[in-house]
Amino acid sequence: xxxxxxxxxxxxxxxxxxxxxxxxxxxxxxxxxxxxxxxxxxxxxxxxxxxxxxxxxxxxxxxxxxxxxxxxxxxxxxxxxxxxxxxxxxxxxxxxxxxxxxxxxxxxxxxxxxxxxxxxxxxxxxxxxxxxxxxxxxxxxxxxxxxxxxxxxxxxxxxxxxxxxxxxxxxxxxxxxxxxxxxxxxxxxxxxxxxxxxxxxxxxxxxxxxxxxxxxxxxxxxxxxxxxxxxxxxxxxxxxxxxxxxxxxxxxxxxxxxxxxxxxxxxxxxxxxxxxxxxxxxxxxxxxxxxxxxxxxxxxxxxxxxxxxxxxxxxxxxxxxxxxxxxxxxxxxxxxxxxxxxxxxxxxxxxxxxxxxxxxxxxxxxxxxxxxxxxxxxxxxxxxxxxxxxxxxxxxxxxxxxxxxxxxxxxxxxxxxxxxxxxxxxxxxxxxxxxxxxxxxxxxxxxxxxxxxxxxxxxxxxxxxxxxxxxxxxxxxxxxxxxxxxxxxxxxxxxxxxxxxxxxxxxxxxxxxxxxxxxxxxxxxxxxxxxxxxxxxx
Length: 538
What we know:
The protein has 538 residues and is of the alpha+beta class. The chain is built from 10 helices and 27 strands. It has a 5-stranded mixed β-sheet, covered by helices on one side. Strands 12-11-17-14-15 form a 5-stranded mixed β-sheet, covered by helices on one side.
């Protein structure tokens, strides 16, 4: 007996259930496992609770009145009457002294004319009528398919599709489609919705929901990713099996600066194809599921812009033809009486990047050597720990150093042979009688230039060498960036001449038992001094 009762209950439930399974389409080519969870899904920002919490009556002239809806009726003149009337279970409202008026299925926009027509049958003249919807009847709508919380949700019949989807916590961004949403009524497709129309153009069809309607979100279709020179870097879903590059550019909001697109296609033969297409050919390029597209601004400039700093009376920003030389630039500069045009300096970003990379590589090697050098005794291990700590602190300071990227201009190099690049910074030093001495000396500072004065005399003016000075490696850096090494030990020969504007840098002595470690540290100090004209303390 119990089995019979259970079978009857099961049959009743099956009969009463909404049959959505027969409507769900399958996409054999859709491989949702390839979706990158970190990728931005276009439209995923739409569902955050802002729509679900909104409750307001929106006027929809095409809404069809249903049982339970409330109509506000006002009559005045020979007969006065005002009341909110509810459409009863028969689909009617009752107006005193007028009678029954059938409103079930009547368009919202036709309420006034229908009621007025009935009133005029009783009152020919001197009775005026006003009627409007006051409250819509609550309806219950099923939301199912690829949403985060499928279920039965209550709302107003005038609520939008987005409000019901938001009640279900939105479309599942990994598997759900924003372009294939079906509204079922009486187990049959009633309307197809593409949310991209709303996301991009703000278009939304007004729809009067009924109790028992089903919102079915299909599985995501073929998708393509877009990045680069676009307003919306996201993963976009194709409406059809294929999408052309021009349509993707519109969806992603291509910027006016974009001229080309790089397309990465993953083929079934385990091969990755990479192709480049110009803007004019976008409409002829068809994309497939999983393609990755990067829009680029591939412009070939005919001019370059350089900055001119230092002592001069001309413009600070100059635009020159591509391929212009330092000599061409000199013709554009307006020097003044303090301009040292012969000591002109060039600073270049690409050179600074090379210097930075070289420094970081040396620091990495120094760090590895400091952390891996073994000790043979506990006493040596304690000394090594202190030494390693000091080296690691030095490395952290050295990482913050930003090379200037100065190009050394050799005396034999002519200005005509130096081709300028985009972003070059040209500095014109001031004529001065100053020689700078810094580093491991008693009193680092700037001293007036005296013709014929030797390097040793300038070092003496700065208080002489400190105890930590590396006398074998004294740097003289000229105004044009050229560096000369001077050995100040007692048995060395030859001293560099000193000119106005020179910098004398005395590096610290690198000490330690490990010769490889000492040599590497010396190289780092030398590299920093050359790249920045600054002596970094150990």
